[in-house]
Amino acid sequence: MMLMAVAAAMSIAGCSTTSGSGAGAEGYDGQGVVTGIDSDGAMTVGDPNEVQTYNGPESLREKNTIYFNFDSDQILDAYVGTMQSHAQFLRNNPDAKIVIEGHTDERGTPEYNIALGERRARSVARYMQNLGVDVGQLSIVSYGEEKPADPTHSEAAWSKNRRAVINY
Asked: Residue 117 burial by CB count (10 A; 0-12/13-18/19+): exposed, middle or buried?
């Protein structure tokens, strides 16, 4: 199944450029939504407007956020269990779909933060794929710094804003 997804992905052209204007960025709509396939065939992303509320299992409601270090898209070991729980639910429920929202703190340019938010969301999505989740169940969106969890201007607030959120 995964081999078929990779083969299909390789046959479709796409990119994930995140320039501020979106000009010349096939698949980028200029508002943080990326559509298409990575050049490495790792990801299909869709319309995050299809799913707007968290309708996942109650047991995962409190564990739908993955936090990141400053200027990083590397998933920390502390979130492996969370990722495994979501992946197991998705594998057991092939009709379930998620939108992974990438967020950043306010430091950096808006363009850089949109790109970093996208990398964070893609990192979570790739991890889910590696755990056996079907690529068709995954969509990503990057909000960059636009939707902070904590709008204050401190290290504590910034650490809350460096995140990816899994929404069903």
From this structure: buried
For 6-22, write each residue's pLDDT tens digit.
333 333 333 333 333 33
Q: Which CB contacts under 8 angstroms, 24+ apart, belong to 10-16?
A: 10/41, 12/36, 12/37, 13/37, 14/38, 14/39, 15/39, 16/43, 16/118, 16/122
- The secondary structure of 78-107 as a DSSP string is GGHHHHHHHHHHHHH-TT--EEEEEE--S-
Give the pLDDT band (50/70/90) at residue 55. low
Selected from 3.40.50.620, 2.60.40.420, 3.30.1330.60, 3.40.50.300, the CATH number assigned to the domain covering 2-167 reads 3.30.1330.60
pLDDT in tens, 76-124: 999 999 999 999 999 999 999 999 999 999 999 999 999 999 999 999 9
How many helices (H) and strands (E) in the chain?
5, 6
Compute the C-alpha angle 80/109/138, nearest 5°.
35
3-state secondary structure of 13: coil
pLDDT computed for residue 61 by the predictor: 81
Domain boundaries, the chain: 2-167
